[in-house]
Specification:
Catalytic activity: glycerol + NAD(+) = dihydroxyacetone + NADH + H(+)
Organism: Candidatus Enterococcus testudinis
Strand content: 5-15%
Radius of gyration: 20 Å
Structural class: alpha/beta
Oligomer: single chain
Keywords: Metal-binding, NAD, Oxidoreductase, Zinc
Order of helices and strands: EHHEHEHEHEEEEHHHHHHHHH
Largest sheet: 6 strands, parallel
Number of domains: 2
Protein name: Glycerol dehydrogenase
Number of strands: 8
GO molecular function: glycerol dehydrogenase (NAD+) activity; metal ion binding
């Protein structure tokens, strides 16, 4: 099997790059579809739209409907075709970005990814997570290229709620845990190749940066200021985690996140990263990880007010049948849980979900 490393063509991060770095977008094309949601339009979209015009580009506004679904992708593709769009610029969070990548793939045009939060590692990857119109996980959609441009304005990200940065830290903390499992099982990475040395090296560095800087960056974000620790965490959440998960691979943590979409209830109010946090603890429990490692993750999650119990996940009243639905969805054919170095059944997932809750409740009560 080939070793494959995947990355965007260019990654640019810093304060003010959505004002001073628009030449990077201009290099991709003249007529730009600016895809964003209503909230982000008010926060940053309208200003960016004006900046694009001032930079002699021809922007077209399109409001994202909220779900990265096949129906929404088709709707936006039709709009872009009608407008003869040359570049897609996806401004916002993970689902906006994933939708923008799918639209760009359908049209065979470049995409500029412009995250306004550092809560997921979607910006750099050559895949999208596709959901039903109701928000249930359906599949990963893979592309033959990564984004041409990722433009990360840390001044804008610093104004986002700190809980979103914490969610991104949780998502990024899964990177090394899952990469290590893939290495042990000699499974494929997310682009269908062997894990390259660079992929694991990035995953390891990602974990180091997160543990060293997470709390400092979280406090800076609460004050809406950009510090060196904040810059490092934004890069870890976005670039290191993005390169790490794609080139080093996913395992149980993200499969369990996907499993959580199989049940109804308040759990859906949680962010991607919050659900991945519990998925990571569940993977560590499946592995019977060293207590010191498990404890380090629990302590950091709790310091960032991330979920570590079933109650935190709004699942304290969940019956075993509900938990089994999560396990069954997490273990469907083709899911990344099968990259673990041992077989995992739906019943194993249920046991680990409950074991994490019991461990944390006993030894780390809030």
């Amino acid at each position: 099997m080939e070793r494959i490393f995947a990355s965007p063509s260019r990654y640019v991060q810093g304060k003010g790059v959505l004002e001073n770095g628009l030449h990077h977008i201009k290099d991709l094309g003249q007529k730009v579809l600016l895809l964003t949601d209503e909230n982000v339009w008010e926060i940053a979209g309208e200003t960016l739209f004006d900046n694009l015009k001032a930079a002699d580009l021809s922007p077209v506004k399109e409001i994202f409907g909220g779900e990265a679904s096949a129906k929404e992708i088709e709707r936006i593709v039709e709009k872009a075709q009608d407008e003869s769009i040359e570049v897609i610029a996806a401004l916002g969070g993970g689902k906006t970005i994933d939708t923008g990548k799918a639209v760009a793939d359908e049209l065979k045009v470049p995409i500029a990814v412009l995250p306004t939060i550092a809560s997921t590692d979607a910006p750099t990857s050559s895949l999208s997570v596709i959901y039903s119109d109701e928000g249930r996980f359906e599949k990963y959609r893979f592309y033959n290229k990564n984004p041409e441009l990722v433009l990360v304005d840390t001044a804008i990200i610093a104004k986002a709620p700190a809980k979103l940065l914490a969610a991104g830290i949780a998502d990024a903390l899964a990177t090394y845990v899952e990469a290590r499992a893939v290495a042990r099982s000699h499974s494929e990475n997310m682009v269908g190749g062997m894990q390259p040395i660079a992929g694991m090296a990035i995953a390891e560095k990602c974990e180091e940066i997160l543990f060293d800087n997470a709390l400092k960056a979280y406090q800076a974000n609460q004050q809406q200021v950009v510090t060196e620790a904040f810059e490092q965490i934004v890069e870890a959440n976005t670039l290191l985690s993005g390169l790490g998960f794609e080139s080093a691979g996913l395992a149980a943590a993200h499969a369990i996140h996907n499993g959580l979409t199989a049940i109804d209830g308040e759990v859906h109010a949680l962010s991607h990263g919050e659900k991945v946090a519990y998925g990571t603890l569940t993977q560590l429990m499946l592995e019977n990880a060293d207590p010191d490692e498990l404890d380090a993750y629990i302590e950091l999650y709790q310091a960032l007010d991330l979920p570590t119990t079933l109650s935190d996940m709004s699942l304290s009243e969940a019956k075993d049948a509900d938990l089994l639905k999560i396990g069954e969805q997490a273990c469907i054919e083709g899911e990344t849980i099968h990259h673990m170095p041992f077989p995992v059944t739906p019943e194993d997932v249920v046991a680990a979900l409950k074991a994490v809750d019991a461990y944390v409740t006993s030894y780390y009560p809030r």
